[in-house]
Specification:
With about 240 residues, the protein is of the alpha/beta class. The chain has eight helices and five strands; from the N terminus they run ααααβββαβααβα. GO terms for molecular function: nucleic acid binding.
Amino acid sequence: MRDHRSRGLSVAEGCRLIGIARSTYYDRLEKTSDDTAIVEAIAAICDEFEHYGWRRVRAALRHKSMIVNHKKIRRLMREHDLQPRMRRRFTVTTDSDHNQPIFPNLAQDIIPDGPNQLWVADITYVTVVGGFAYVAVVLDAWSRRVVGYAISRSIDARLTLAALTAAVEGRKPPPGCVHHSDRGSKYAATAYRDHIAAHGLVGSMGRRGNPSHEAFRVKGYFQGGMGLSLFTVSMV
């Protein structure tokens, strides 16, 4: 209204003519100003992370100390055509077609009552600028927290070995701690199995592509999380 009212016409007169209160006019003016800053922040996030939906956008805004109601985020993304781009639904992280030895499934009989009794290892991926990166993670099944991780653009045994090394050096598990994973070649590799044995860990493997259906999925740990630039881990 301010841009279209005639010269000499006061705000009060303009509001009276269109039948709204002056407080409503100023509330809308302030709201438009506030929304502009929010839209600019959302647009910047969507430009960097084009696959982000409103949940991840909300998390990214909070990372910028901007607390915005999810309904407003959804509305602004819809109104300003900031909808996420679709991506392929599945990225292969497990290769079970190999001739390496397979550990028996010991995790199905374990209910941990303390830390460093059962570790669960898996590989997932997170969105980064220009694509995605692989994250190898070792979680403690009792605390459900990260004890070791490694990040790389490529997926091979060096990635999983780096995560295991970080876990062992950081936690120094007692002999007999069970290390559970899927049957993928990255976990069945000779170097990885040797590292497990050298540190007194006991190997365990689940069914194909599912390291921990008895406990929990590492991939679920990251669902609804942010991209790698916002990725933080909580160490025990």
